[in-house]
Specification:
This protein is an alpha+beta fold. Helix content is 26%, strand content 18%. It has 13 helices and 16 strands. Helix 3 packs across helix 5 and helix 5 packs across helix 9. Bound molecules: CU-O-CU linkage (C2O). CU-O-CU linkage binds next to helix 8.
Length: 496
Amino acid sequence: MSRVTTAESSFLKNFPDKRNSAAVSRRTFVSSALATVGLALAPRAALAEDCPVPVISAAGIPKFAPDSGLAIRERKRVSQLLPAEITRLRLAYQKLRELSQNDPTDPRGWKMQALIHNCYCGDSAEIHKTYFFLPWHRAFLYYHERILGKLIGDMSFALPCWDWDDLLQNHLPTIYGPLPAGNSLFDSNRAVNSFLPTLFISPSALTEAAMRQRTPDAFLGSDWVPSRRATGLLESGPHNGMHNWTTDGAFPDMGLNSTAALDPVFYAHHANVDRMWTKWLCQGGGRANPSSALFLNEEWVFFDENKNKVRITTRDVLNHETSLRYRYDCALPAAAAAGVAAPTTVTTIPLDGGPHSLSPAPKTFSVTPDPIQFAALIGARPELGATVFLEIEGIDIPANAAPLVNVFWSKTDANSTTSESDPAFVGLISNFATPLDHAHVHPKFDMLMEVTDRANALTIGAPVSITLAPTTFTALPPPAVPITYDAVRLRVAKLA
Ligand code: C2O
């Protein structure tokens, strides 16, 4: 369970009952009215004791047991659903919405499901920006999927995946749109443009940047520590990117973590995040989950399809085929559950000491490694378990802001219009906004981006140049969000 037990702030009892359907444009969002807008639209923080699930202690709650008799279901890509599967999906969300209306206290209903997600956002039990991000959402979706199955009397029901990793699916799936009238998958709190292809940000390129990572720290993120955490590139890249893009960087629903799970596309989005976790492991090359006991034994409480509380750990969800009874379009490798330890540092090469702030203009720093550093960089061979990370430490983004900052290697002319598909692209720094009065846990975070191949290709006497280029979803200039960071460095590390 969560390691922080501080008392929480107030909770707006009528959790997003009155949602503001007016789209807040990115321009409004960017303006100095940002904080005010955020507070006006956002539900307040959940009191731990107001959450339908206990977020502090799971004492006395029955433990998860696999539904071994259930045939393994395939979570398909949205673009491949058959008409009957679309009808079934729509019926399921219609039932979920009806349940919420008929009995607002039923923990399985639409709004209560969103509230459960909200309970793990920004407060003491925060699971975002840590390596708990992936297992927590996997467990949440598992029970959500079973609830939908129960509501339609069909436990073979499987969630679909919004397959934004596919270049051709870089827009909201049309089945989630306003037609037919009354479509239960539709949510009016989305940007008008979200059904059009993303032109100024590439979810498939963001996904590729995440998939290239070979270590769990860089891909999944790392441990929660009281003052700091590391965010993985899957979360910061396509995950935050598409949350924010769905609402064009504005607030409810998808753009704000306290309301995101009110939008049915949230679950298809997260099914794809979950699919990318599996596909990452399927690539092999030493990719594995973290082996730390802290990661494996973390435990959360959910409601099952029969309204019973159940506790479940990371370890329970790692093999989703055997324990959760679903699969994706690649077979989970047996080694996936084994786990690897965090790499140990061999050498660090400071690139930019801090603290520093980012303006909307791109910022480049160049450092020429000395001969010893150069040897370490070109000699770090993945086959010897050595990795070079670009490490950005102590990133601080206002909790309620959603800026995008692209990172490039050796591309000193990169700017806000340089595409993530550019070969020099390394990764995206971003945020998933939290209402200000919800953001009790708002530590700085670190990001690691693997640059081994690029470091191996350095030539003697040539500088390492890193460019941080703030960008946007539109042709407009990037917003002036006060982003600071403590340091940027290269870190040569070895797997223990
Ligand atoms: Cu809990 Cu996509 O967020």
